[in-house]
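User: Just a sanity check before I run the rest of the batch. Below are the structure tokens for the first item. I only need the designed sequence back.
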């Protein structure tokens, strides 16, 4: 099974918890220095759903502007 792992994407569900302090922490840890946009998940989802990704198994495809790679 493959999974698509989105990073921080502002949505109505999380706007209340995105305080200025929380946003500053996220931006300070994200190399791209911005939140993702929903359209940026489309390519990754299409890859996992298409023949182009048919030999991919057990992958967690992270789309997060580099947030995950900054964790050391």
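Assistant: Here's the designed sequence for the first item:
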């Amino acid at each position: 099974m493959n999974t698509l792992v989105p990073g921080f994407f502002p949505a109505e569900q999380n706007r209340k918890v995105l305080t200025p302090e929380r946003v500053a922490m996220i931006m300070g840890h994200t190399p791209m220095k911005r939140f993702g946009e929903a359209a940026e998940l489309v390519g990754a989802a299409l890859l996992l759903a298409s023949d182009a990704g048919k030999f991919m198994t057990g992958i967690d495809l992270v789309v997060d502007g580099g947030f995950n790679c900054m964790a050391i």
